[in-house]
Amino acid sequence: MKPQRCNDYSKRVKYNNTLYDKTIIIDPGHGGKDPGALAKIGGQDEKVLVLDIAKRLRTKLKEKGARVIMSRNSDRFVKLDDRARLADRYNADLLVSIHIDSHKNPQVKGATCYIARKSLRKSREVAESIDCCLNSNLINCKGVRRADFRVLIGHSKPAVLVECGYITNIVDDMNLNNSTYRDKIAESIATAIAKSL
């Protein structure tokens, strides 16, 4: 999918900076016995970093008035189907899953947004908004891609999965282990959600 740039996207999106009538599921990937992508250069494994980003995102969304449900609040393992079911159980307006990627090529870097192959229109709109806001905040995002991850297709609600960078790239890894950078990711995602929901 060709990524939408900010100038193009802003012509179509209905800007809404409050989320008082919205319910959002935040799904920090992995946890417990599943560490996700392992730190190869130094710093923390994926499960630790994404939980921190998710908690920051929760705070920012709540400040905008959203009702926020976390799939996990601590270092515990949650099955994929249980994560996905939360969207329908709470009649969510959006499920956003937070991850960090890895690659055999250490030169590969940057964030990526994913939606399901047969995603709802709102999923695409939110993903494009996240891509736009990340890039606007100088966090390289490579656009919106399609993939049928379980948390994207295991329910009937809009959903996006954000890979926040590559733990196997020295620059991304250094950034992701910086709390200010993680806060900037959370702020970008929260802003994007408020603009597109």
| Helix and strand run | HEHEHEEHEHEHH
Termini distance? 21 Å
The count of strands amounts to: 6
Describe the global form. Answer: globular
CATH class: Alpha Beta
Give me the CATH superfamily.
Answer: Zn-dependent exopeptidases
Binned strand content:
15-25%
What class would the helix/strand composition place it in?
alpha/beta
Give the count of structural domains. 1
Largest sheet: 6 strands, mixed
Low-confidence stretches: 1-16
Strand order across the biggest sheet? Answer: 2-1-3-6-4-5
The name CATH uses for the topology is Aminopeptidase
Protein described:
- Helix content is 39%, strand content 19%.
- It contains seven helices and six strands; from the N terminus they run H-E-H-E-H-E-E-H-E-H-E-H-H.
- Helix 2 (46-63) crosses helix 7 (179-196) and helix 4 (121-136) packs across helix 7 (179-196).
- The two termini are 21 Å apart.
- It has one domain: Zn-dependent exopeptidases (Aminopeptidase, 3-Layer(aba) Sandwich).
- It has helices at 6-9, 46-63, 80-89, 121-136, 150-153, 170-176, 179-196, and strands at residues 23-28, 67-70, 94-101, 111-115, 141-146, 159-166.
- Helix 2 links the parallel strand 1 and strand 2 (67-70).
- Strands 2-1-3-6-4-5 form a six-stranded mixed β-sheet, with helices on both faces.
- With 197 residues, the protein is an alpha/beta fold.
